[in-house]
Amino acid sequence: MATLTVTADMVKKLREETGAGMMECKAALTEANGDFAEANTILRKRGLATAARKAGRVASEGLIGNRLAADRSSGILVEVNCESDFVARTPDFQQLVQDVLSEIEKAGDAASDAWQRDPTGPIARLVAAKIAHLGENMAVSRFVRYAGHGYVGQYIHAVGGKIGVQVELGGVTPAIRNRQELTSLVKEIAMHIAAANPTPQYLSREQVPPEAVEKEKAIYRAQLPPGKPANIVEKILEGKLEGFYSQVVLVDQPSVIRDLKMTVKEVLVSAAKELGAPITVTRFARLKVGEKEV
Known about the structure:
Elements: H1 8-18, H2 22-31, H3 36-54, E1 61-68, E2 74-82, H4 85-88, H5 91-107, H6 113-117, H7 122-134, E3 139-147, E4 151-156, E5 163-170, H8 180-196, H9 210-223, H10 230-248, H11 264-275, E6 280-288
Antiparallel strand pairs: 1-2, 2-3, 4-5, 5-6
Helix pairs in contact: 1-2, 2-3, 3-7, 5-7, 8-11, 9-10
């Protein structure tokens, strides 16, 4: 069989399809005798091999990517990591973030943690090809997808895209979905979460595990001088727990965006009166590049 001459246009086409380097594309096309499907397979195999060699290197830089449906019915946040901030700022890496978002969007409800980490799945293939092209270890650390259960808002911190927040509101009626007050409210809540960082991320007091509350109370008891009457001790503990809740429970936190004298719950109550609907936060997530999940 005659050997096909690999042209510059063929190399360019394969490079656009795979993101691999020009020399790698030319070598793959030569090996595959011009068969694009076979060349793609060769690059994928080599990309996976490249990814395996680089897997031990620390990838703690990167970006938080986001996508929000026009009607605010769904949203996605994803953390994509690389080794250096230099690579994180390149168009190639930013395109990887967008491609990962597209795959999550396409998968819909099937997009689970297991799906994300499948070594033969679409995320692994995208990442492997980009590792081969850019030469750094990369990974999709985690993602959050909300869909079909409320009104979704997002906020990406302007400095480097390293922090992203997604919030879902309940009680949003068709009559208020397009009101500017609602758009402003969800952005305000998201910005508050970005700044205040309730950690662990409890939405309400009911979500705080009883053992966590008892641990706090034991610490407070140990700080009290002996001999205080039991009823006085309980009142002191209740007061100290209020301070604990204001740190770890979203709705009990002072609003760092609007007024520190108002809690987030009071901001929501005020907005509900203004909009004429019982607005609540049903769930939220805060992702920061390189930060381990709590």
